[in-house]
């Protein structure tokens, strides 16, 4: 039942995020199991994106503790780290609800930017690069190979040299995932990756996520509104409403949780108990 | 039927031109028509209604003709196109004014500038009529050219582009070779005395190209709007001047030091302000530019204040001076002494410096740091999510740009032999920025074209004196309205899996910083 | 103390002038998000128009007081109207064709316009300084008697009172205009979302033009005040005054009208106090450094809305 508590890759404890008077996330705790696909769901405005923003350092949480444990045993306290270090050192990568690609750069360039840090050290602060030393050229070739690998996985090899802004929406979504994967993450946070995709693209996305879980040492957390996607691929579902966790468990357990149903149907708090009674809890 | 159309067009044109004339009247009747002159007992007004009348008539007639013959309803024009035409016609009028002033003035002793001063009505009217006609012809031709180009469709445009592609590849090389050959061509053609003025101009243009390339890193690649770039130019110039004054160091010794010092200043100034976004960054950099200038102006004991620093040493060729002495350049190489040798040498120095700037920039663009600069311009938040330290990346862009500014500054100092804070005013920053933006952000060749057009054109109109700044300003407006993304606006990818085709400007972001 | 008071009075006067110019920057920035670099030169044009009228009408301090005030008022109105036409024209020619285009393009045309205006005035009016005799002299002596006992004399001149009063009245009127009228509403709508505003029937082009017109009118007021206060102008005054006023707008929080006024006052005070107590030469350095420091710690300015970084 609580498999994810045994070997969590990410632990969130008492996370609270306030914006002035608004409590977007309220004393939230959960674990993300290593190697799992975990879905974070909830109605609009529940605070899902805010949780991601706290985890990836874009917001500094008002309170709480966020820990990442790598499979190597290293652990990082995310709330103390600036955003770029979270990606670079703690290896938490993410995508955005409104796609943020480098639109004027080619698909390949997007993937090369994602490998900035290893390439930067290979270019010895650019000096080796300026003089075109072999070490840098080898590193660059490896980076291109790595990018090609992901291009192949998302089926965009043919479009590698086109500007990212030129791609259709579904391809942009997948490219953003590939770009995040190019950083070699331990945790991959996807914010509504299936939004706006047609059923075929959605199925492709599922396959991609399953592949990532199977072949890479990467645990996936995704925010998703499409229940069929959630139910199909996730091992673990966490439900948020008004910044609080209202359910946490396997997809099947969550699906039949009356609180979840109530939250999605938009029933007021007092009525939740009523609904619960009706369902027989 | 067609009579009706043309009649209604005449009416509409008449109304439109009338409004334009009225606005011109409101704009000009005081500023042009009533000139305040210092006379005994304070200011007095010198009335020049003729000039106002002419201005209004010109605008009316010009607009009327444009309405009737250029802005035809059957070829609908965008606002942009209209504005460009308007600007072009003003420019054409000014050019004609100038040409007549210069050539007819010399031949027949007739000068419109003098004519305006003495209110010589007839003359002015005649001239302006001429100017208007020429302007109309020019714009009509332009309109015609566009109309003819239009029906060829996208296929033709693409094939033209494809035909031009190899040109794009060879153009930089051709330009480079031309640049190397310039002194010899000039001397061959004009003799050493006649070519001096043009070589000086070429040196000036190259200095601005180098400055443009330096600023291009900051604004074009990293998308950080820097309105105080001249500060680094000043730091470079003063570093060299002061180092040579206090420690007797020579140009080649000081050149790297000046660059390093400018880069350090870039980092010191950049560190606190680079967190600011967009226009805040612009205003703070502008402020820093002014601060540095004011300090140079007022720290009399150290910098000489408004008197500046003179006697800055000239560059040597591996220790060989360009003087009349026995161990001077001419004597050692068995040549007749001529001051042009030094000018040619300076030309090659700045050419080499500019080419190095270009080489380094092109290389940096293909390195991770350069790609991070461009990514920063595209989307800073995405950069941070990919583990890029944006502060350091911005600082590196700022410092690299500053360093090239510093190099250019120390060259400026050694070329002039004298510097003062006057050379480092805001207008200088504005001109460099204009070169970068007009050329097309991020485009190296665009900077070259813009610098040649702006600086070369500006110097070409040297005799025009007061008019040329006016033309310069108008030109900035017109080019921008005509091509808001600059002259060369396609972005070349830094790496390609199979090919590298240009990316059109509408996709490229301009950055928020 | 007396010295302090005197500097305070001078600083508030100068700050009022900066504030009036700053409003033009802040409004334009608020509505179309661009630095209207030519605004300082619009102020200069306003000042020149006032100067030409003062000279042409032969206005002198010798006139009867009521007549003098009436004439100055007339000059003010005409200058405001004509300067507005300039503001409108600049917007129409250099900014409107670039609406919705790339962000740096209007900045460059603005710099181009600034150069054009400066050189146009230099050509048409000459490059020399233009001095006028003081028109309004005298004032109250607040402290220190007639100065015969060697103590410091604190003066509050009529002119300073005039400047401060006119500025205050304009500010209040202006704030009401923005807050109460449909024009103000249209402006705020365009600020929020230009496309949406045009969809619900706001005439966006007209609203933006009017914003430029209002900014230019206030700049003309500042131009007349500047002429009266300093008694000498030239074609170059627009640059420094413009940079200071823009600094003021940023300091106060760009986009905010009270912010522009507050920023103007602060810049005026910083400048006068720095000149009064430290050194005149470095007064600009002081003003700019304080701007930089404030922005570093308070990036949205004093009264600006904090910018939320939506991820
Ligand atoms: N930077 C911010 N400043 C103020 N309020 C914010 C900020 N970011 C988020 N909020 C508020 O926090 C609440 C939660 O927002 P969040 O974006 O996390 O919701 P969400 O669950 O991702 O919703 P959706 O499904 O619509 O994406 C909302 O009320 C939102 O307005
Ligand atoms: Mg969300």
Ranges of chain B with pLDDT <50 over ≥5 residues?
148-160
Give the end-to-end Cα distance of chain A, rounded to a whole number of Å: 20 Å
* Structural class computed from helices and strand pairing of chain B: mainly alpha
> How many helix segments of chain A?
13
Q: Which geometry of chain A do the CA atoms define?
A: globular
Number of strands of chain A: 10
The largest sheet of chain B has its strands arranged as: 1-2
Q: SSE order of chain B in H/E notation?
A: HEEHHHHHHHHHEHHHHHEHHH
CATH superfamily of the largest domain in chain A: P-loop containing nucleotide triphosphate hydrolases
Quick one: how many beta strands of chain B? 4
Task: Return the CATH class of the largest domain in chain A.
Answer: Alpha Beta
Mean pLDDT of chain A: 87
Helix content of chain B: over 70%
Instruction: Report how far the terminal alpha carbons of chain B are from each other.
Output: 57 Å
Radius of gyration of chain A using CA atoms only: 20 Å
Number of domains of chain A: 2
Strand order of the largest sheet of chain A: 6-7-8-3-9-10
**What is the residue-averaged pLDDT of chain B?**
79
The largest inter-chain interface, given as chain pair and residues per side, is: B-C, 67 and 70 residues
InterPro entries (chain B): ABC_transp_permease, LivHM_N, LivM-like
Subcellular location (chain B): Cell membrane
Main location (chain B): membrane
Domain High-affinity branched-chain amino acid transport system permease LivHM N-terminal (chain B): 13-75
